[in-house]
Amino acid sequence: MISYNNLNNNLNQTEQTECITLGTLAPNFMALTTQGYIRLSDYRGKWVVLASQPMAFTSVATTELIDAARIYPLLQERNAEIIGLTTDNIYSNLSWVYDIYQKTGITIPFPIIGDADLRVSEQYGMLNPNRLYGETVRDTFIINPYGRIRAVFTLPISCGRNGRELIRILDSLQITEKYNLYTPADWTQWEPVVEPSPRTYSDLINRVDTAGDDGVECPFWYVCYTDLPEGAAEEITSGTPTTNMLKADKR
Q: What is the pTM of this model?
């Protein structure tokens, strides 16, 4: 849940925290995980998917871990890593991933934070604001290689994430950062994309005058479809940085 009011032990006192919004620098943290201590800053240079689970040993969360393990190679192809989080202690998380291995033979290849003190959950506003329940909802934060938050989405505890949709969103974000192109509704990997709409009148006139050039199709002056640059799909799935990416915001 994206809530920016964290409550102290005294429920009558609230503390306002910085808003977690697109483009802001993701709060850094050091946390104990199923793979030892990690710091978010250690992941600079990679895309990061930070995904919370309500708690260990729950039905939907277990299916999500298995699905995430299956798509993990696809994330790595895209220079991306995933970090899980529960508000259970580290021993519960270790027992959980080991139980999954025993029952399915699937190893969970990414770290899961044991956020029993709720420190990371509070930093990212993952908790119910009235702290009635000591668990998170299903929050997902996608962070770019320079530590900026590029996507945030929240699901209720009853609804599991879709791994294919996660990959689709990650591809869309990388296309925008590398080529300044957007993805339309119902876009799937490597279909035509759209150019950003003109922001000035001169851009509008230029768009009208050049419509149809270089394979650009414009059913409206503000909606223009184009193909991805040659080799873009291979470049994204190889995790290779481009000139545009290297020029991206590094603050």
A: 0.84
